[in-house]
Amino acid sequence: MNTKNDKNSRVWHGGVDEVHDVVVVGAGAAGLNAALLLGRARRKVVVIDAGEPRNAPAAHMHGFLSRDGLPPAALLDLGRAEIARYGIPVLRGRVEQIDHGYYVRMAGGVVLKARRVLIATGLRDELPDIPGVRERWGRDLLHCPYCHAYEVRDQPLAVLGTHPGAVHQALLLRQWSDDVVFLPHTLDLTAQDREQLEARGLHLIEGEIKHLVVDDDRLRGIELADGRVVPRTAAFLFPRFVPHDELLTRLGCDKDDVGWVVTDRTGRTSVTGVWAAGNVIDPRAQVVAAAGMGSTAAFAINTDLLDEDVDRAVEQHRHATVAVR
């Protein structure tokens, strides 16, 4: 891409005419932690964020040492404040395309030039079309037992059979409550599924789910198509994970057999100079794990940049040595 000939684009340099060492796309835990380490390594970094965090519906996050119970938005505020101390800006906007050569195009025409790119754009939870599901999501309709089951421990719980992963979810939830029912809904359970659920003490209630019963802004139960209502105070649902990997896909990053972008242990993709971290490549990564993935990627990116810097310095040194002879 030649930005000089593109009348609809303008290159953003943060006030100086320079190439950024790293452009980080996504300001969740992975992106911010990567930016923090890179900033401390005195790299020129810019973070771009669309402002649509996956865990926005949740009141609190858990399982993060020293941050257990903190609202997700508060963690992001703290992270942005920390990287600001190292002079790293966060641009609000959406990246539409990344061209080979690491020109990062934002909606509205802004273009940034980078030496390396880290994609930490996360994923979205695709929810079943059941009335009440979207409204209660992240409140008393939950997904991750490790994240939220402790807060509803010993309560009457339900697991909605809208995804094959719901069976494992239900088996796991018995660690937090003795009163867990499994509603297969339209899920076709195997004989082994039924045996395992029954062996774990879960009560199976057949019938298609009609909607969630809510009263006074609280979940009260699950109504089935035949009119029966199963009283519950909280429910769990296994969503379909859809990664925000369009930028990686357009760059031609390799994917595995189920369609997820593959990386090495540092987050390096198959495309030179492009890394990925967090839920965009691993749907199981909790906030603390995503932050760690961002840290690991930052170390690797800085090392990659260092190798390039050293090669360039050696080449310049050789030319200078020849010139004085």
Helical residue percent band: 25-40%
- Quaternary state, please? single chain
Q: H/E order of the elements? A: EEHEHEEEEEHEHEHEHEEEEEEHEH
What is the terminal-to-terminal distance? Answer: 40 Å
Question: How many DSSP E strands?
Answer: 18
What is the annotated CATH architecture of the largest domain? 3-Layer(bba) Sandwich
Structural class: alpha/beta
**Biggest β-sheet: count, sense, barrel?**
8 strands, mixed
Output the CATH topology of the largest domain: FAD/NAD(P)-binding domain
Query: What is the top-level CATH class of the largest domain?
Result: Alpha Beta
Give the radius of gyration: 24 Å
Let me know the CATH homologous superfamily of the largest domain: FAD/NAD(P)-binding domain
Our count of helices gives: 8
Instruction: Please state the average pLDDT score.
Output: 93
Globally, the shape reads elongated
Strand percentage:
15-25%
As residue ranges, the low-confidence spans are: 1-10, 13-17
Overall tally of structural domains: 2
Q: How would you portray this structure in words?
A:
The chain has 325 residues and is an alpha/beta fold. It has 2 domains: 206 residues, FAD/NAD(P)-binding domain (3-Layer(bba) Sandwich), CATH 3.50.50.60; 110 residues, 3-Layer(bba) Sandwich (FAD/NAD(P)-binding domain), CATH 3.50.50. Helix content is 29%, strand content 24%. It has 8 helices and 18 strands. The strands form 4 sheets. Strands 1, 2, 3, 4, 5, 6, 7 and 18 form an 8-stranded mixed β-sheet that branches. It has a 5-stranded parallel β-sheet with strand order 9-16-10-11-12, with helices on one face. A 3-stranded antiparallel β-sheet has the order 13-14-15, with no helix packed on it. The longest helix has 37 residues. It is elongated and about 90 Å long.
